[in-house]
Amino acid sequence: MTRTSFPAAVLFDLDGTLLDSAPDFVVTANRMLQARGMGEVTLEQLRPAVSKGARAMLTVAFPQMAEAERHALVPEFLEIYEALIGQYATLFDGVETMLRALEEAGTTWGIVTNKPEYLARLILPQLGWEQRCAVLIGGDTLAERKPHPLPLEVAAQRIDTAASACVYVGDDERDIIAARAAGMPSVAALWGYRLQTDDPQRWQADCLYEQPQQLWQPAAWPATQPASA
Predict the structure, then answer these.
(1) Where does the chain show beta strands of DSSP type E?
(2) Which positions ≥6 away from 58 have C-beta within 8 Å?
(3) Residue 79: what are its φ and ψ, rounded to 5°?
(4) Which whole-number Å values give the CA distances from 124 to 23, 128, 129, in the listed order?
(5) Strand ranges in 40-83 using DSSP code E only, listed in sequence order
(6) What is the DSSP string of 185-209?
(7) Which of 39, 45, 46 is nearest to 21 (CA)?
(8) How far, in Å, CA of 93 to CA of 41, rounded?
(9) Does residue 93 have an active-site annotation?
(10) What does pTM read for this prediction?
(11) pLDDT for 1
(12) Hey, which residues does 19 pair with through a beta bridge?
């Protein structure tokens, strides 16, 4: 049966789903490489690893370095990134129109990301989302992070909506695993960041879409349960 209204609530991953943050991370990595007299990494090289986190991006930037050494670089990576956050990033085309459509329909929306919460919160005022985003859960907000379902479950609780009445949208397999474990319908954002070895068709998302514009209409969203928590 085709949906005639948007879901009661939608939760989004941030990097690779709402925000094309890869340009910020390329500048961050290249500042580290330049400081060491090393060659630069390209956007095409780094982009697929963004949704995997800082350690994955450092693996791309410093492939010759031992794993323990790369892990020791994470604080430096995050410090540089914090200083320039949002300067080069942009919303994916169609995201703002999608969010406006949800808001006009009375849908509550929020963000559940594995990015540290303090960094995610720096993004909100840059985008004018401080009042619009109803809930923000970061990767260090709780004792667990995605693919564990706890962040999605807590986000739903904080907006007083049953998990089964929410939809989660993300570009990584961890997003879909977390949603499924939380009993939350999911959308795989194929416009985001993926490694060549990733196969979204195997993730078991309820819907897979190539562009945010495909989510401008209620009929595109997966079915949900009633909204009461």
Answers:
(1) 9-12, 19-20, 90-91, 108-112, 136-137, 166-170, 186-189, 207-209
(2) 29, 65, 70, 71, 73, 74, 77
(3) -65, -45
(4) 18, 6, 5
(5) none
(6) -EEEETTS---TT--GGGS--SEEE
(7) 46
(8) 25
(9) no
(10) 0.94
(11) 58
(12) 15, 91
- Asked whether the beta carbons of 37 and 30 are under 8 A apart, the reply is no
Q: What is the mean pLDDT of residues 183-206?
A: 95
Q: Which of 13, 15, 172, 206 is catalytic?
A: 13
Residue pLDDT, tens place only, 72-112 = 999 999 999 999 999 999 999 999 999 999 999 999 999 99
Give the Cα separation of 188 and 37 in Å (integer): 39
Q: Please provide the average confidence, as pLDDT, over all residues in the chain.
A: 96
For 104, counting Cβ atoms within 10 Å of its Cβ (0-12 exposed, 13-18 middle, 19+ buried), the class is: exposed
- Please determine, for residue 31, whether its predicted confidence score (pLDDT) is greater than 60: yes
User: pLDDT (tens digit, 9 = 90+) per residue, 195-216?
Assistant: 889 999 999 999 999 999 999 9
- Amino acid at the residue 166: C
Per-residue confidence (pLDDT) for residue 225, from 0 to 100: 86
> Which residue in 203, 196, 193, 208 sits closest to 147, CA to CA?
203
What's the first-to-final CA gap in the chain, in angstroms?
A: 24
